[in-house]
Amino acid sequence: MAAPHQYHQPNAPDEDSDLELDLEELDPLAANSRSAATPPRRHSKEHRKPYRELGARIPLRNLRVGRLRNRKNKEPEEEDLRGLIDDDDGANRNSNGSYGQSGDDDAPLLPSHNVRGKHQRAPSTLSRFQSTIRLPSFLASSPNRPGIQLGEGGEHSDAEEEHDPTTQRTVAAGQPQTSRFPANAVSNAKYTPWSFLPRTLYNEFSFFINIYFLLVAMSQIIPALRLGYLSTYIAPLAFVITITLGKEALDDIARRRRDAEANAEPYTVLRFEENSVGNGLAPDKSSSKKRRLRKAQRGNGRLTDIEDEEQQVSTTKGVATATFWEVTKPSRNLKVGDIVKLGKDQRVPADMVVLKSYSQDVTPPATAKPEVAGSSPSLIDGVEGTHAPSEDASSNNNSGAASGSSGEAFIRTDQLDGETDWKLRLTSPLTQNLDVGEYTRLRVVAGKPDKKVNEFYGTVELHPKRQRQYDTVEQEHALTAQIQSAPLNIDNTIWANTVLASSCNVLAVVVYTGPQTRQALSTSPSRSKTGLLELEINSLTKFLCIFTLSLSFILVALARFREIDGRQWYVSMMRFLILFSTIVPVGLRVNLDMGKSVYAWFIEHDKSIPGTVVRTSTIPEDLGRVEYLLSDKTGTLTQNEMEMKKIHVGTVSYANEAMDEVASYVHQSFTTPAGEPPSFVTPSSTYVAPLTSATRTRREIGSRVRDVVLALALCHNVTPTTEEENGQTVTSYQASSPDEIAIIRWTENVGLRLLQRDRESMTLLSCESGNIVVRVRILNVFPFTSESKRMGIVVKFYHGPLSSASEDDGEIWFYQKGADTVMTSIVAANDWLDEETANMAREGLRTLVVGRKKLSAQTYQDFSSKHAQASLALHNRDNAVADVVKEYLEHDLELLGVTGVEDKLQKDVKPSLELLRNAGIKIWMLTGDKVETARCVAVSSKLVARGQYVHTIAKMKRKDLAHTSLSFLRGKTDACLLIDGESLALLLTHYRQEFISLAVQLPAVVACRCSPTQKADIAYLIRDYTKKRVCCIGDGGNDVSMIQAADVGVGIVGKEGRQASLAADFSIEQFCYLVKLLVWHGRNSYKRSAKLSQFVIHRGLIISICQTVYSIASSFEPNALYRDWLLVGYSTIYTMAPVFSLVLDRDVDESVANLYPELYAELKLGRSLSTKSFLIWVLVSIYQGSMIQGLSQLLVGVGSSSLTASPTDLSTFQKMVSVSFSVLVMNELVMVAMEVTTWHWIMVASIVGTAGVYWGSVPFLTEYFELGFVSSLAFWWKFAVVVGVSLVPPYAGKLLGRRLKPPSYRKVQGV
After folding, report:
1. What is the average pLDDT value for the chain, to the nearest integer?
2. How many CB atoms lie within 10 A of CB 804?
3. Cα(245)–Cα(251) distance, rounded to whole angstroms?
4. Where is the composition biased (Acidic residues) (predicted)?
5. Which residues are CB-contacts of 51 (< 8 A; sequence separation ≥ 6)?
């Protein structure tokens, strides 16, 4: 019978008959034995196997088909079709939510719960002819039953259940899932449209000042307490709340826009559509109408029935399970089970398991569906399309071989865990060698979402192709027997926010999305941050409220609790409370919020710190109060760019310009003498020194340099890759460590380039001559681990001329490089290693010691057999292997040299850290990187001062040792503490209070191997214990938790992402910008807000004192002195602009602030807005209010404003109000001028302009003022006297205070 994907001639004579059945088609083993790479061809009769041999293997269930051959149709064909395909709307849905196909290999012909006594007629020969051509989708799909497109259909189905996140999950690759998982969206927003109003109103009314004014406003509804227009009290509060809510809304909208950018990042996703077994079409493509058409053309003979049944039952190994094509999806639409194609330097959008890795230099697949479904779809990016593989997928290496890929990829994880090393990720052999069209058969079993970024356990299962089987018991047995599985671990995963570093493409299946990714689980939710200044003002307003209550009670008590105008004493007391409500200034929050917007504008428009963005404009004052700075290392203090700076070869050290001498030695060593054919260089090759430098010392040094450069060029895990850029071929290097890349770049610079490297061999090229000079066969590689701290390699050198090189009898050498702490005991005795490594460490360089050892063929043979034996041990395998390596290799190595690699620091990091330390800020460095790396950077960045003792606590597992370390530290509070994450966790668990009380006193703390959660915990701990302001700065996704836990979060726009800067309160482009942000902008913001808030309180308090004096003079009656417009105008147009202009004031110049960082240290004491300064302002307000109102009443009289007052009393009252109110307004303007330190033209304009506005509005205040009196001389001399008495004493006191105890900024300015 023709294979289903091949053309069948409708008029060809049919070879099959009842007597001559092709038994091979009933034999699954025979079908399985065919190569998966070729379609199953029909064997000719001559080449068929003997029937005896075939028949012996035919399962009974397949022969049962014969019983169906003589059966006639008992029911209409439409009913048959309903029973097979419609299947009561999905009764045949399997666990992954896809429909069982009517012709799939493994599916039972009839569902077990709906077995009917009939058989399904298979397509006729004509149908097989038609099946080779795919109809357009609009013709092929019936309108009421769309084609089954895996990965699209059912994705948004409401029938899906929410997946329980506490249980493990089974992910069907490339298909819809049975459970619903969270959307893959990043969200840094604080509010949703529904939670915005409740949360913001709650935040606003958690401030005492707002709840106080709400109560005052509500009191005006009660007639007995009404003092004026209701709007007088409600409008200011509504204005304040609207301004604040508007600002919060704008901040959050900006966050949402930034999130939307990240969520809209496009990714290539593979879409799958299952092929129906038998015709290669989707199941909907075979309708009953077409069946009838075939019937009419072929007749209803028994032969047709047989062919139809054979067509249905045949094992169709030649057709891939699914066809696939590429679509582009935004990041937010990625779902669990999607198979995503990633390229070099692309951010990983979700937590995934890697399925396949292949090179980029092959052509991508067509993005449209293949036209002929019967032919196997092309493997993505040009990997040769194969037919369905045999069930033993691990033996099918077609696609792997075609791609030329080894199933490896490197990723950068510095955005996740802070580690700079590239991580090697591997694909499972089960998926790497599997055709992409078969991926819908994969199931990934993974654990529940977890925040551990270095741990993952799971399995990948390959389900068999569904076959026609009639015996349900046997069917279950076949399924369980044929499922293949392979383990998955951390090496098979790529987590969200890592970046693919390899020059290859990767296919990966999404396992965790959105809030369930490792990154999101390690990130704390964003919180609304409140500045310390606001909390302090909140406390002061409570004091003012108590003051108001006390004053009201005193006035009622002085009136002896009598009835006034028919009102009980408690009603009078309530009216007094409302009259004095201006003591607690409602406009304070508005002024401060507007001031913060001005500070944010100044920060964002500062040309010396370009690119700085203020994302949270509610806390700029906190920049001036920072006491602890918690900084990330990678990408924050360092650029994460390594450079080889120094090399020492025992007797001589090379650095900087001296590297040219190394290059000349290398050139001499690897250049073939004139007249000789080019040949390979081995370590035993004699070093040929030029005649000009033939001294013995020069020869020895030259030989040493050659050996160390050769060792460095061979002992590594670096792979060179070439790429086309702007028409030029550019070589780049891939490795798990940037240190190794730096060393290989250095060897290239001095003349020896790594040309090629794979798992078996390595080739080195001379840069001068362009000839291949060294070729080795790699025998063993011992990779670097954080435990061993070293890496080694055993190589066998090729020797002889290039044309006839041989590795027979080649030299075998063991090379090793590692940290000085472990290499000291491995290399042979010497007298210079310790001293030289200490010198390099003091310079902040990362040191590596290089050694070598020659092995005889016999020694290597013995080692190899012992090593292989140890590698098979079931118990203590690692220790057994390590013992063998130590016995044969790791002893008495010849010491070749020491290298020093520098991790380049960010611009101006050293002076920035020094200045911040002088400003009294304690600096902690929290990193996910290794202990040695953290120590080097702490030294090179001057975080640790020269000669400062560094106390290291690492790998601590016992409580008693922790206690000993803490006791030691108590006696050395000037030391720097270096602690790793494991020890930190132990201390925080058992000695939390003791540790933090000690650590906060130390000048510097370096915590390495920290998880993102630990970073955040430390920030919380310092905040809670010290109650001081903590600033956290970082650049990676692993810093987001820490940034959000801090009082002030600063994010640096990193090379690999903006996640930290998006989640931060302030975003900067370089670490050195932090200095100006804190020392200059932080100082100004705090000083200005402190002055502004005290002035607003003074403004409210002074008018209340005037009201008090008037009430006492008017027999304690609770009547208003200034009502309606005067009250509103006083706090708005008559004083607001001059008072607000204080946000432009500054006490020192920027140069002075940078020159004397000690000035910043003073701000932490909070003296600008302290209880002392507040009480001074209260006393000034009481004095001025008493003088203004008292003198006005003495000079003019009191009068009365009540409805029953005589015209004379009313006139006297208006005259008195015109004097006192005018003095009050002018007093405020002059007080503003007295407070200014540095004048700005806006200040002058606002003061003069406001005075003009006031006097210009007086003619319109006829309801409140006696205008005739205002224009008289009597008014003006009384006005002048009152102003003089209220202003001169406070100003004299201010001058005297400056003279006796000048502030620090005046001392440094010499003013």
Report:
1. 78
2. 8
3. 10
4. 13-27
5. 23
* Average pLDDT value for residue range 1110-1122: 83
Residues with catalytic annotation?
A: 632
Annotated binding-site residue numbers:
632-634, 740, 784, 817, 846, 927-929, 1009, 1015, 1035, 1038-1039
Report how far residue 102's alpha carbon sits from residue 85's, in angstroms, rounded to the nearest whole number: 6
Q: What is the pLDDT of residues 1269-1280, one digit of tens each?
A: 999 999 999 999
pLDDT at 899 over 90: yes
Q: Is 691 helix (H, G, I), strand (E, B) or coil?
A: helix
User: How much is the CA Rg of the chain, to the nearest whole Å?
Assistant: 42
Stated as kind and residue range, the H or E segment containing 864 is helix 857-871
Amino acid (1-letter code) at residue 1131? S
Q: How far apart are the first and last CA of the chain?
A: 106
Cα–Cα distance measured from residue 460 to residue 444, given in angstroms and rounded to the nearest whole number? 4
Give the pLDDT confidence score for residue 558 in this predicted structure: 85
- For residue 1267, the one-letter residue type is L
Q: Count of residues for the chain?
A: 1311
| CB count in 10 Å sphere of residue 820 | 20
570 vs 1083, residue with greater confidence: 1083
Give the model's confidence band at 1216: pLDDT under 50 very low, under 70 low, under 90 confident, else very high: very high
| Nearest C-alpha neighbor of 736 from the set 642, 867, 841, 847 | 642
Annotated binding site for ATP: 632-634, 740, 784, 817, 846, 927-929, 1009, 1015, 1038-1039
Angle of the 1012-1026 helix axis to the 981-990 helix axis, nearest 10:
40
The residue assigned the tokens 């935040």 is 203
* Structure tokens given for 788: 């061993």
pLDDT of amino acid 294: 45
Q: How do residues 287-305 score in pLDDT, each as one tens digit? A: 343 444 444 444 444 443 4
Sheet holding 339-342, edge to edge: 322-330, 266-274, 339-342, 504-512, 351-359, 493-494
* 1111 in Cβ contact with 1204 (< 8 Å): no
* DSSP secondary structure, 5-40, as one string: TS---TTSPP---SSS--GGGG-HHHHHHS-TTS--
Q: How many whole angstroms from its chain centre is CA 400?
A: 33
What does the block give as tokens for 1276? 């003006």
For the cut 80, the answer to whether the pLDDT of residue 802 exceeds it is yes
For the stretch 1175-1179, contacts whose Cβ atoms lie closer than 8 Å and that sit 24 or more positions apart, written own/partner, are: 1177/1094, 1177/1097, 1177/1098, 1177/1101, 1178/547, 1178/1101
Q: How confident is the model at residue 689 (pLDDT cuts 50, 70, 90)?
A: low
Please give the average per-residue pLDDT across 504-523, as a whole number: 90
Question: Hunting for tokens 């200040």 — which residue is that?
Answer: 1243
Binding residues for Mg(2+): 632, 634, 1035, 1039
* pLDDT, tens digit (0-9, with 9 covering 90-100), for 1236-1291: 989 999 999 999 999 999 999 999 988 889 889 999 999 999 999 999 999 999 99
User: Tokens standing for 856?
Assistant: 């005889």
- Secondary element (H or E) of residue 1260: none
- Do residues 350 and 517 lie in contact, with contact meaning Cβ atoms separated by under 8 Å? yes
Q: Long-range CB contacts (< 8 A, 24+ apart) of 669-674?
A: 669/702, 669/703, 669/705, 669/706, 669/709, 670/706, 670/751, 670/752, 670/766, 670/768, 670/769, 670/773, 670/774, 671/766, 671/768, 671/769, 672/769, 672/771
Burial of 947 (0-12, 13-18, 19+ CB in 10 A): exposed
| Distance separating alpha carbons of residues 381 and 372, to the nearest angstrom | 19
CA angle 43, 48, 49 (to 5 degrees): 140
Task: Indicate the pLDDT class of residue 391, thresholds 50, 70 and 90.
Answer: very low
Q: Is the pLDDT of residue 185 over 80?
A: yes
